[in-house]
Amino acid sequence: MADIIGVTESTIWNWEHGVEPELRHILKIIDFLGYVPFDLSEGDAPVGRLKRFRLFNDLPYKKTE
Q1: Residue 46 pLDDT > 60, yes or no?
Q2: Dist CA 58 CA 40 (whole Å)
Q3: pLDDT exceeds 60 at position 64
Q4: Cα–Cα distances in Å, from 54 out to 12, 23, 48, 51, 64?
Q5: CA quadruple 61, 18, 25, 52: dihedral, nearest 10
Q6: At what angle do helices 46-56 and 23-33 cross, to 10 degrees?
Q7: Residue 34 φ/ψ region, left for φ over 0, alpha for ψ in the -120 to 50 degree band, beta for the rest
Q8: For the stretch 34-54, what's the b/e string if a residue is b when 16 or more beta carbons lie within 10 angstroms of its beta carbon?
Q9: What is residue 60's DSSP assignment?
Q10: pLDDT of residue 38
Q11: Residue 35 gets which letter from DSSP?
Q12: Which pLDDT tens digit goes with each residue over 12-40?
């Protein structure tokens, strides 16, 4: 799994023990698992779609200056 995602085995261990993966790894994690491993409870509302788009494309949530 670590080789597929492009991280070390210790990084995988950290994720398994509560450390959040960096956004740049999310798409590879989703591809590896075959599903989205987090809550998308905002559904198809525009805010939910925008949030997913930003997350999947590694875009910031905060206003940049």
Answers
A1: yes
A2: 16
A3: no
A4: 23, 10, 10, 5, 14
A5: -40
A6: 100
A7: left
A8: eeeeeeeeeeeeeeeeeeeee
A9: -
A10: 66
A11: S
A12: 999 999 888 887 888 888 888 887 776 66
| CA–CA distance, 38 with 48 (Å, rounded to integer) | 13
**Residue type for position 29:** I
Band (9; pLDDT cuts 50, 70, 90): very high
Residue holding tokens 């991280």? 7
φ, ψ for residue 4 (rounded to 5)?
Answer: -65, -45
DSSP-based three-state secondary structure for 58: coil
